[in-house]
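Co-fold these.
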Amino acid sequence: MPVQRDHASEIAAITSHPTFKAAVEVLDADHDRTVADIITLTEIPSPPFKEDRRAAAYLEMLRAHGLEDVEQDEIGNVMGVRRGTGNGGLIVVAAHLDTVFPEGTDVTVRREGTRLHAPGIGDDTRSLAVLLAFIRALDAAGIRTRNDILFVGDVGEEGLGDLRGVRHLFSKGRYRDQIEAFITVDSPQVDKIVVGGVGSKRYSVRFKGPGGHSFKAFGIVNPIYAMAQAIVELGRIEVPETPRTTFCASIVGGGTSVNAIPEEAWIDIDLRSEAAEQLARLDARCREIVAAAVEQENAIRSTSEGGITVDIRTLGDRPAGNTAMDTDIVQFATAALQAHGFAPTHEASSTDANIPMSLGIPAIKIGSGGTGGRAHSLAEWIDVEKAASVSGMTASLTTILAVAGFVGE
Amino acid sequence: MPVQRDHASEIAAITSHPTFKAAVEVLDADHDRTVADIITLTEIPSPPFKEDRRAAAYLEMLRAHGLEDVEQDEIGNVMGVRRGTGNGGLIVVAAHLDTVFPEGTDVTVRREGTRLHAPGIGDDTRSLAVLLAFIRALDAAGIRTRNDILFVGDVGEEGLGDLRGVRHLFSKGRYRDQIEAFITVDSPQVDKIVVGGVGSKRYSVRFKGPGGHSFKAFGIVNPIYAMAQAIVELGRIEVPETPRTTFCASIVGGGTSVNAIPEEAWIDIDLRSEAAEQLARLDARCREIVAAAVEQENAIRSTSEGGITVDIRTLGDRPAGNTAMDTDIVQFATAALQAHGFAPTHEASSTDANIPMSLGIPAIKIGSGGTGGRAHSLAEWIDVEKAASVSGMTASLTTILAVAGFVGE
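Predicted complex below.
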């Protein structure tokens, strides 16, 4: 029987330790530098699949912060190791380099008092700067951990990036077999700990047919009817409320002229579930529906000019997973937040933590501190008021230290 | 009981008359000039709703050809009168100024032997030049008609132009109460006489809803489901084969992000029939279907954030109509083609003639002569080989003279 750990006591041992207090003082004293780093990194555009410029800058920052084995991997992640005392394994602390904003988006930071406005500034650029602040604070206070900590700026967290950076880290990266726990610092809010990874399958279903003149060719198959039939059936699927499972017909397109039977129509579909088996079931049902809709259209209208065919292209495939409430990583994060006056809640979401969760590796998402809003919109903002910012950072640093094995000396 | 006219004999009386033969010789001798006019007019772009430049040029050409009362009306049509002998009414001979090609399309004519390639060259620019050739031939041969002939270059025949030029001519134009017959010369082919006007109703049906996050807001109404339900029901409508009646879901769109329930989805629908009452029935059924689909979506999913609303915007409304086979205009055209060695067939289509047909005014579409193909594509071409061109032009001129009342001296 495993020893029951008293997580609150372990957290208290950290927060009361003089070296930890010294580290917090550094976070506080160093705050302007952290804000400057946030602005610097935010103003380096990092569109989906084009994170190179920001990755290069962050690589240099990691190197300047004295990490070891600083490198960029094949997929584009940049990382470096802060060595532990040698008797532990390796944990990952990551923030994502990419934003949702396309090339050409104005990423100039506009400051109003303690509010900073810019696309991507909270999600997740602030976290990149906060990881650097953590390294400086740990170094200045002389704090050691048992585990090595791999600090990572990863690519492809958003949208069609499909978690490709962290997926690579766990499937092909050189550390893939050594990672004992994974913490992603994503967006400012700290009191919501993400412990569930909502899985998703996204695909674009493209129906093709012969096309023809709307009047002269009337009676032949029309890919829009096949698609509509599939969408109607999709809308009728029954899904459980718990584990939460959803479907969505999201984007639809097709056709070129009002007087033509179109040659193509397509629908982008988003399927999600907190549970892997529910997601698999939903995915299978959706594919059945598409096949049946094509078959029906080819049966009820003429295929004399050719029938309807269909092609399903995967847009995204994020595995579902979760980290149990009674695991150390969740208990430490919860106790750390409570110790710093927060009232933590536990949620499921889709983050870089999905990948390790799906592999059974303890993983959570925590916050970068302070407040923010309007993520994924051009009006995105964060507040860098010092007290709130440092308080949130302190809670997150406490969690990281507990998971990495704080060495009290 | 009306006197039964012998149309073939009347046609023979025209084609055997010395002045008619003289006119045909002019068509032949003048062919290079006609080809030059085709090129000149084709190279003046005339996109939908932007026929002004070509209209201005054609107005000057009509004036230079000695017509009376040359003018441009409020909607953009240009026209002029060739006076009859005064004991007849007025007939219209029209060709359309507009093409389907957008602004910026390269309309340079490329010549390969007797083939001319350019967007819009056959549909319907060639006909504009042919009307001028007819005027020159009639004048050179000294041919008179009983009726006044109003030569018209009209706007808005294609697509969303929705026949607005000819619609204006018959609803608000100064000649609206005097027109006894209408002949549109549209595209090269002469052996298919259009005697039926396929009516159409086209609309864009736009479904709107509150939109939301695909996972977090799951369960709320989605405009794509309402639209799909309407499309499926549209596809189930039963329509008669005769009079030919058709429907088409043509263009579909909506949504912006794969992880969002969209705020909008729309479908462009094309409804057609050779019979006005069938078209009206189809239109009514389609509107019922849309309303029911919206109602269903609002009933089966949550409207807590707002319900689905729908807006139907008319894209086109072309009245159905036809000119009976036993009318003089159809009989003259048929006999004229036969007299020149063609084997005419009779068809229904959607042309400028729909408007007078729907008003009970005798109307047909005839051809400009020669051959052509790939209309409405960038690869559009015509062949201006002289013998075939003049033969087709001669048949069409014969029809016009018979309808206008050829005066044999």
